[in-house]
Write a structure and sequence with these properties.
Length: 273
């Protein structure tokens, strides 16, 4: 039995695609519920979510839309957890669209007594030339190509979710969850999902800066979790291979990384869409 928790902040444009993808799921073989947590929205996110009530009722899946006045993803995740009726959890970003076989594949790997963390094969999508180049190189990094990064989608079974309580007020909830599991406890299922990257150079810099800050925050505040960090190091030869394989992707990715270090950080966070 699986509870899908989907936090959404001002996602009226993308939420419908995420919910349609869930509705298109292959038979899961287990009871599924979906909980949308609209948090701090200034648009019609909650109305879009409520518009799917009939479609989910037709599947027999329990479907709940929560509205929180205050924005913030950790609070939305915690509200979803509090409302969830099933022990296994799938945490899904509102801009992610899953393949039809995703929930079934996650359900199979989570059906065990040992603590388990799982995700699928992420496809980083982009429209602009700059973002496509950045995404192409990023997807070739060993962490993305050989690991279980859980970007925008991760799942845990009951024993796995018991490893922490509420989500703390942190930037990178996916990193926080992933590092509660040793590499051998993380499972990559053979099902895909689309995860859009920010569009344009400036937006990529904003998002990359926040990603870096999220990783640094966890390293500083939760040092014990670093024992589970198996992020591969590229080394000089690995960097050279990437540069030779995809020169334009490498230049774009490196330029974003350098800009993050060189440009002053803004005072407020923007998703960068």
């Amino acid at each position: 039995m699986i509870s899908v928790i989907l936090p959404a902040h001002d996602e009226e444009r993308l939420l419908g695609s995420a919910l349609q993808a869930l509705l298109a799921s292959s038979p899961v073989g287990a009871q599924v519920e979906v909980i949308v947590v609209a948090n701090g929205c200034t648009d019609a996110t909650a109305d879009v979510a409520r518009g799917f009530s009939g479609a989910f009722a037709a599947t027999g899946w329990p479907y709940t839309v929560l509205e929180l006045a205050e924005g913030g993803k950790p609070g939305a995740l915690n509200a979803g957890d509090a409302a969830a009726r099933f022990a296994s959890r799938v945490y899904l970003d509102a801009d992610v669209t899953v393949a039809p076989d995703m929930l079934a594949a996650l359900g199979r790997v989570l059906d065990q007594d040992a603590p388990a963390y799982a995700s699928g094969r992420v496809r980083i999508t982009a429209r602009s030339t700059t973002s496509r180049r950045y995404a192409r190189l990023w997807q070739c990094l060993p962490f993305m190509a050989r690991g279980v990064p859980g970007c925008g989608l991760f799942a845990v079974n009951a024993a796995g979710r018991a490893r922490w309580g509420d989500f703390p007020p942190i930037i990178s909830d996916d990193t926080y969850a992933r590092l509660h599991f040793a590499p051998g406890e993380r499972h990559l299922v053979d099902a895909g999902y689309d995860w859009p990257v920010a569009e344009g150079f400036g937006a990529l810099v904003k998002v990359r800066r926040r990603q870096d800050a999220g990783v640094a925050e966890i390293a500083a505040n939760y040092p014990d979790l670093r024992a589970n960090d198996d992020t591969p190091r590229l080394g000089v030869s690995g960097i050279a291979r990437l540069a030779l394989r995809d020169p334009m992707g490498f230049v774009t990715y490196a330029s974003v990384a350098l800009a993050v270090k060189a440009l002053p950080a803004p005072k407020t966070w923007s998703r960068g869409r």
